Automatic annotation (TrEMBL):
Keyword annotations of the record: Kinase, Transferase
This protein's name: Polyphosphate glucokinase
Protein source organism: Actinoplanes lutulentus
Matching PANTHER family: POLYPHOSPHATE GLUCOKINASE, ROK (REPRESSOR, ORF, KINASE) FAMILY
Family: Belongs to the ROK (NagC/XylR) family.
MF GO annotations: kinase activity
Protein's UniProt keywords contain Transferase: yes
Lineage: Bacteria, Bacillati, Actinomycetota, Actinomycetes, Micromonosporales
NCBIfam families: PolPhglucPhase (NF045942)
Amino acid sequence: MTILGIDIGGSGVKGAPVDTVRGELLEERFRVPTPQPATVESVVEAVAEVAEKFGDYDRVGITFPGVVVDGVTRSAANVDKSWLNAPAARLFTERLGKPATVLNDADAAGAAEVAFGAGRDQSGLIMMVTLGTGIGTALFLDGVLIPNTELGHLEIDGRDAELLASDRIREAKELSWDHWAPRVEKYLRHVEMLLAPRLFIIGGGVSKKSEKFFPLIDIRTPMVAATLLNNAGIIGAAVSAEQHPASLQVDAAAQAAKSEGTE
């Protein structure tokens, strides 16, 4: 069985077929820019473009930068508002002609790290934090995902944490590592106060430069860089597609739409 993982990010949509036993890409990943604006129709087509690059496949797992419940996207902080309450699993399944499972992007990356990377064999409460266009979070208790935490939107100093410490803000404001690291530290200290996790796994593209800012951050909780780097979302999406039948998401989304229509 061939399973694709496709990761929808704020700047790019990337994917590849995945070995879900070893947690590795089977081919070099293919990437296209995320459409601007990132409407439902344009992003679905971008995902289709990535999928078509790899020919025949059996099913696909797709990440989304927001809350996903039963295949329906319930938030849209870093994409077009047309994604609010969109039946994503059904839309992707219909467009690709293959079963499509959809989940939160940070949850997917965290699942991959817990299964194959920096969080493997770790017990207790572990938090994955992806620093990119926004701040994504995934929470695991003894290896079990607590989905859709969205703790990147905690309020810090009267504003959304993403506007304080995301990698996008670092680049937009041209912040040096010395000036950006204290922002990340403030965010992580806030999370420490609320949850007291056993381990932080820091992901996102900036994690491959961890030596630049990790030494500048002083927190109690151990902190490690994600080992799967930018492939974590792709791998986690594919694993989710294997473990969670897409038909269940599509059926649940259809039932939810039917219920909302009768209210």
